[in-house]
Amino acid sequence: MPRLNPPEVDGMSAHQRRIHDAIASGPRGRVRGPLAVWLHRPGLAEHAQALGQYCRYDSSLPARLSELAILTMAAWWRSSFEWWAHHPIAVQAGLDANVAEQIRVGDTPVFEQADESAVYRFVRALLETRQVPDALYQEAVQVLGTESVVDLVGIAGYYTLISMTINVFDIQPTDGSTVSFER
């Protein structure tokens, strides 16, 4: 049971409704999950959703890599809604379903592609140590490019905010399913 339900559309202020409609008419096509809860504070929703739109749709990383980073964040935060929402997108974007499963259960995935390995190890190092070692940073720049490394850090930061929102307000998958992490 969520701790906070989204505001009712009929009762929204003009600011809330403007942000709601901007989200619904954008690439997401609907308002749900943390974005819906943020509408309680439309200023937050406005700016956070704009950052999210950039991170998800406009970053220099191909969808396969950005979705890998998102799944890595979702597993770290044990954010069921985020995993539920992004797992199918990641697989459709070309991430191996077995790699995704290894991430979900807390195993270290075996990657066939160097860019996927770099993204995963970079995000995990950032999460685990709050730093990225010089050698890993240089590898990521070499494999991904400087612009993509900047975008990767932005994705990690944004999906930290997303995951915190999901976990604090107990936002669950809308179809009633559950996602468990680690074995």
Could you explain the architecture of this structure?
The protein is mainly alpha-helical. It is built from nine helices and no strands. Helix 7 packs antiparallel against helix 8. 38% of the residues are buried.
Largest sheet: none
Amount of helix: 55-70%
If you average the pLDDT, what whole number results? 95
- N-to-C order of helices and strands: HHHHHHHHH
> What's the gyration radius in Å?
17 Å
Which quaternary structure do these chains form? single chain
Q: Approximately how much beta-strand content do the residues carry?
A: under 5%
Shape designation:
globular
Model regions low in confidence, pLDDT < 50 over at least 5 residues = none
Distance between the termini: 24 Å
How many individual helices? 9
State the secondary-structure class.
mainly alpha
Number of beta-strand segments: 0
